[in-house]
Amino acid sequence: MNDRHVALISAFYDALGRADFAAMERCYHPEVSFGDPIFQEVEGRDRVMTMWRLQLGVRDGLRSTYCDVTADDFTGTAHWTSRYTFSRTGRQVVNEIDALFRFEDDLIVRHHDEFDFKRWSKMALGRPHGLLFGWTPMWRKTIRDRATQRLDELS
């Protein structure tokens, strides 16, 4: 167990819970990459932080909790839960997320979040879209393309 890296992951999630972008950014390596089922691959600290600003902007009243933080000298994991109102639909979302981290220079250089896209789409988008189409590759691509377009507009 690497206590510094456990503390780094905890500091990141504490900052996320406060929407403290400066503190979140301090946890990331300049060459960080981020991925999740929606934002599949985001490169560089500036763009990753833009992605977080975008995500927190479409999530009204984000509350997050985290647990099960583990880390060694090279990698780490955590489980976190985000609770928010999806602003586009006004629907409540509770998303269970497993995070993987890789470290370089005692900073997070890789951050990957994994969650059930179908479950998320049912909560965020509701019926019929989320329920009927949440599992289809075409629907996933549509959601990903919209997110990427919004990120490009802000970058």
TrEMBL record:
Please state every residue range assigned to the domain named SnoaL-like.
10-111
Pfam families, alphabetically?
Answer: SnoaL_2
InterPro entries (UniProt xref): NTF2-like_dom_sf, SnoaL-like
SUPFAM superfamilies in alphabetical order? NTF2-like
Q: Which domain of life is it from?
A: Bacteria
| GO terms assigned for molecular function | hydrolase activity
- Sorted alphabetically, which keywords does the UniProt record give? Hydrolase
State what protein this is by name. Answer: Limonene-1,2-epoxide hydrolase
